[in-house]
Amino acid sequence: MSDTIAALSTPLAPGGIGVIRISGDDAIAVADKVIKTTSGKPLSTLKGYTAAHGKAYDGGELLDECVALVFRAPKSYTGEDTVEISCHGGVLVTSKVLRAALKAGARAAEGGEFTKRAFLNGKMDLSEAEAVMSLISAKGEGGMKAALTALDGALSKKIDAYCNVLVSAAANMAAWVDYPDDEIPDLDLDVLLTSLNEVYAGLDGLLCKFDAGKALTDGIETAIVGKPNVGKSALMNMLSGFRRSIVTDIAGTTRDVVEETVRVGRVILNLADTAGIRESADAVESIGVELAKEKIERAGLILAVFDVSRGLDESDDEILELCKGREVIGVINKTDLPRKADIEKIKESISEVIFTSALKGDGEKELAEAIERAIGTDKIDTSQAMLTTERQRRSAEKALASIKEAIDAVNMGMTMDAINVCIDSAIEDLLELTGKKAREAVVDEVFSQFCVGK
Ligand code: GDP
């Protein structure tokens, strides 16, 4: 038994069409109280996957002309009886149709409740539900493709396969421990180690690509740094494709941190154009310098900009110093002007150096490729399984640690029981990853991030 929920599944904004979704045991009965079909046949007489034209009413008040789409359990998104009412996409119209459905007996759905029901009814696992969310919020091509791959169950299949390897290893060991006198062949520790190493390598590979995958889906915090007037704002404008920062000749005009999300190739950069790094007597600018240093601290990628038409000075040295040990690309800007800067000195500190003229738009492609290389997204194949959420990463990391313990236990000649405990714990973590055995709190955490109507 499931109660019947309803929500507006399209944005509450003027649009061509607005969709009110109703799902649950009484979904069709509720919709029948709101909709009078043009054919006169109640929705309850219709088969699944049938659309009916009609009019929506709140009691006696005509609300709109609409089309109702009937889905019969289990063949619907949620796995329950569902009706989707498409009406005209006005803020007032959709709100009124939704209110009529609520008056007719539905309850207002909570955020992500439709997808949660799909999960509880076995329509998708947790990683697929998370993929739905990634797909909705995808900002770039790479993130969208990765979400579609996950929605297709690529990660679940991979994790299920690892689970099966571990379960059969554990079962062999259990049989051997429990029935030592039966005709069970001796446990071959080499075979066990091979299985454990296979799963270890697979999970390790997924974890190694996590950060790069995140750059495709969520973007990477990127700081553009450089002394005043080297062309940071101009570079940001070149990357974002329109004038966003103020570009002037007066040193120190970019005082605040200007933030911008831009798509460079397949990668999403959450860009911060920082105030010029230099000690300044100007109080406002000093705040900017502090902000810049903070941004560098938090950045996953730094674009350090130098002006090729001027000799390097102490401020450039300070920047080279700040970039030490960080993921950084040196951007040598103003290549349209005569070269005066000591480029070799920059190359001594920064291995990846790109030449640009932000003014003319030169070097953008080379910069995009360097960014992909620096983050590692050039090695990501979005048609392959990958971990896309922090939750998935945590579970995979816990499983990896348990498998490492199991491998160590085998190598140290520990008892079968000790090895089994480690393998069991890895299996638990993997089952939590796909949600096949997730704690309620974990499930709630996943769905709390969804919007209402999804
Ligand atoms: P910021 O202080 O580092 O943000 O520098 P801006 O982006 O404000 O640029 C400072 C000045 O340099 C402006 O007059 C820009 O037009 C100029 N500039 C920026 N990039 C280039 C470039 O590639 N070539 C040339 N010739 N001038 C540039």
Description:
By secondary structure, the chain is of the alpha/beta class. 46% of the residues lie in helices and 18% in strands. The protein contains 16 helices and 13 strands. It has helices spanning 27-34, 91-103, 113-120, 126-137, 141-151, 154-178, 189-208, 210-217, 232-240, 283-298, 314-322, 343-349, 364-375, 390-411, 416-434, 440-448, and strands spanning 5-8, 15-23, 35-37, 50-58, 61-71, 82-89, 107-108, 220-225, 258-264, 267-273, 301-307, 328-333, 353-355. The chain has a seven-stranded mixed beta sheet with strand order 3-4-5-6-2-1-7. Strands 9-10-8-11-12-13 form a six-stranded mixed beta sheet, sandwiched between helices. Helix 12 links the parallel strand 12 and strand 13. The protein is flat and about 80 Å long. The two termini are 21 Å apart. Mean pLDDT is 85; it is low at 242-256, 275-279 and 283-288. The structure holds guanosine-5'-diphosphate. The site of guanosine-5'-diphosphate (GDP) has 21 residues, from helix 9.
Distance between the termini: 21 Å
Counted by DSSP, the helix tally is 16
- Rg, nearest Å: 29 Å
Which secondary-structure class do the elements indicate?
Answer: alpha/beta
Query: Percent helix among the residues?
Result: 40-55%
Flag low-confidence runs.
242-256, 275-279, 283-288
Query: Could you tell me the strand content as a percent range?
Result: 15-25%
Biggest β-sheet strands, sense, barrel = 7 strands, mixed
Name the helix and strand elements from N-terminus to C-terminus, one letter apiece: EEHEEEEHEHHHHHHEHEEHEHEHEHHHH
Number of strands: 13
**Overall pLDDT level:** 85
C-alpha geometry? flat
Small molecules bound in the structure, each named once: guanosine-5'-diphosphate
Strand order of the largest sheet: 3-4-5-6-2-1-7
